[in-house]
From TrEMBL:
Chief place of localization: membrane
Membrane topology qualifier: Multi-pass membrane protein
Keyword Membrane: yes
Protein name: Protein NRT1/ PTR FAMILY 2.13-like isoform X2
Keywords: Membrane, Transmembrane, Transmembrane helix
Pfam families, alphabetized: PTR2 (PF00854)
Domain of life of the source: Eukaryota
Length: 567
């Protein structure tokens, strides 16, 4: 047990430093693009959204490489080195004058933007960071879960708490990054503001390799992507084949024994998405004498079919997270622009950096999650008999509601801020209204993240089979990617269609002349439609597994595995 704690400690230490480094680098990036690269608000927002989208799609590639070739440990190792290279490049960009635009000419009111070579080096740095994220994100949580023994009650409880505490530590790291690191970037220098996360990343790499001999390793069992495609192709080729009578599957459907040493539980054949079952129907000549398949594109195992069904079941739920994340992504763009035009003084001498304001969301999460995990969940568990207190879909739905409320509150506060700026602002356009008027929308968004994000992470990891855990975490990243591209699309459409008849558009460079609240209300409206879609999808969802507490013993779990057959 002591050894278990030691290698969890190495992994957790690496995770903490790696996240502190990565988040500290990009937490204030919108401000960096506006101040140092002299980009317009919409251009900077597009750069952030497009890069974020690419970064969040890259875990799909990382998951494929991890599952097919390298395994989780090696993938994380290479990815952390790539992240370090990206951070080092960002530090050099801030340090060397020839790698970033010159300062603005205040007297002439002229600001020169980046050259092609400067923008190219910036893109290279962001590319390295994307490669790093592509390897770390899909493997980080599964590698942590690998350290627990899921066959024991203690291990299962450890995994359940792991997801909540993982995000709690993530929140604490965010708070540090959004306060201390951002303050250094704003008040000391960008070189130190980027250099400190770079050094932390180097420490993270060293700590990660120190635990090499203590980790639990799971060998790659091959990528599930080819297997998923084979099921679809085989089912299509057999679309005209009729199902046999009766429920007996032995000898009718291809169901080979599990390989020795595999961690994957065997799945039983179900009737949901029954058309895919044809991929496992055995036809003449498709099974060789040794029990193997003659053509994997014409015959698939029951296990492959059921794994494909897992993806089919989850995708509609996955799609509902995109609009919810679109609301969350505004914290790093237009909320920062709002904060920069408000009174940010805390006391007489200290001025809150605009990029630090989203720490309010993180503090909300950091306070709420331990209370939720240690107080609320045990109380709810006694009533609902559900291991998590409420179902994962209920948790995600509550998060969607909070994201809608956050956008509505943001839309109501912005006209107050703009009116104050127009009536009382000086030449700098800063309203005398305190920046803490933005706190309610950020607190609501914190609750949205606490319910929806953690709900998604846990949902994907529990509803996918063990060998698809990397894919599960890639889907979570793809949700953020879809949100980034949707946000970029909305911003560009609004920017190009609302500025007519001599009036500035809603998202014009001067935020005091625009109407950002209309964008917030637009996202809130989309959120309401998304909530209706989510409720419709959730009603018909069939869980792969349900974990309930046994009525006879509150400390034992009656694990109702509808589709899982343990051998």
């Amino acid at each position: 047990m002591e050894g278990h704690a030691i290698y969890i400690g190495f992994w957790a230490g690496n995770e903490t430093l790696e996240r502190l480094a990565g988040i500290g680098l990009v937490a204030n990036f919108m401000v960096y693009l506006l101040r140092e690269f002299h980009m317009e608000q919409v251009v900077a927002s597009n750069v952030l959204n497009i890069w974020s989208g690419f970064t969040n799609f890259s875990p799909l590639i990382g998951a494929f490489i991890s599952d097919s070739f390298l395994g989780r440990f090696s993938t994380i190792a290479y990815a952390t080195i790539a992240s370090f290279m990206g951070m080092l490049t960002m530090t050099l960009i801030a340090w060397l004058p020839q790698l970033h635009p010159p300062p603005c000419n205040v007297q002439a009111n002229q600001c020169k933007g980046p050259t092609k070579s400067q923008f190219g080096i910036l893109a290279m740095a962001l590319g390295f960071l994307s490669i790093g994220s592509g390897g770390i994100r899909p493997c980080s949580i599964p590698f942590g879960v690998d350290q627990f023994d899921a066959t024991t009650e203690e291990g299962r409880r450890g995994i359940n708490s792991f997801f909540n505490w993982y995000y709690t530590t993530f929140t604490v790291v965010l708070i540090i990054a959004l306060t201390l690191v951002v303050y250094i970037q704003d008040s000391v220098s960008w070189v130190w503001g980027f250099g400190i996360p770079t050094m932390l990343m180097l420490c993270s790499i060293l700590l990660f390799f120190l635990g090499t001999r203590l980790y639990v390793y799971v060998k790659p069992e091959g990528s599930v992507f080819s297997g998923l495609l084979q099921v679809v192709v085989a089912a299509y080729k057999k679309r005209k084949v009729t199902f046999p009578d009766g429920d007996d599957v032995e000898g009718v459907y291809y169901d080979p024994p599990r390989l020795k040493g595999t961690i994957v539980k065997k799945l039983a054949l179900t009737n949901q998405f029954r058309f895919l079952n044809k991929a496992a129907l055995i036809m003449e000549g498709e099974v060789l004498a040794d029990g193997s398949k003659s053509n994997p594109w014409r015959l698939c195992s029951i296990q492959q079919v059921e794994e494909t069904k897992c993806l089919f079941r989850i995708m509609p739920v996955w799609a509902s997270g995109i609009i919810c994340f679109t609301a969350m992504s505004q914290q790093g763009t237009f909320t920062v622009s709002q904060a920069s035009k408000m009174d940010r003084h805390l006391g007489r001498n200290f001025k809150i950096p605009p990029g630090s304001l989203s720490v309010i969301s993180m503090i909300t999460i950091g306070i709420w999650l331990p209370f939720y995990d240690r107080v609320l969940v045990p109380s709810l568990r006694k009533v609902t008999r559900l291991e998590g207190g409420i179902s994962l879909l209920q948790r995600m739905g509550i998060g969607i509601v909070f994201s809608i409320l956050s956008m509505i509150v943001a839309g109501l506060v912005e006209p107050m801020r703009r009116a104050s700026a127009i009536m009382h602002a000086g030449e700098d356009g800063i309203a005398p209204l305190t920046v803490f008027w933005l706190a309610p929308q950020l607190m609501l968004m914190g609750f949205a993240e606490a319910f929806n994000i953690i709900g998604q992470i846990e949902f994907y990891n529990k509803e996918f089979p063990e060998n698809m855990s990397s894919v599960a975490n890639s889907l979570f990243s793809c949700t953020m990617a879809g949100a980034s591209y949707l946000s970029a699309m909305l911003v560009n459409i609004v920017h190009k269609t609302t500025g007519r008849h001599g009036r500035p558009d809603w998202l014009t460079k001067d935020i005091n002349a625009g109407k950002v609240e209309n964008l917030y209300f637009l996202i809130a409206g989309l959120g309401v439609l998304n909530l209706g879609y989510f409720l419709w999808v959730a009603r018909g969802y069939q869980y792969k597994s349900k974990y309930r507490i046994d009525d006879d013993d509150k400390h034992d779990f009656d694990v109702e595995l509808n589709n899982v057959v343990e051998k």
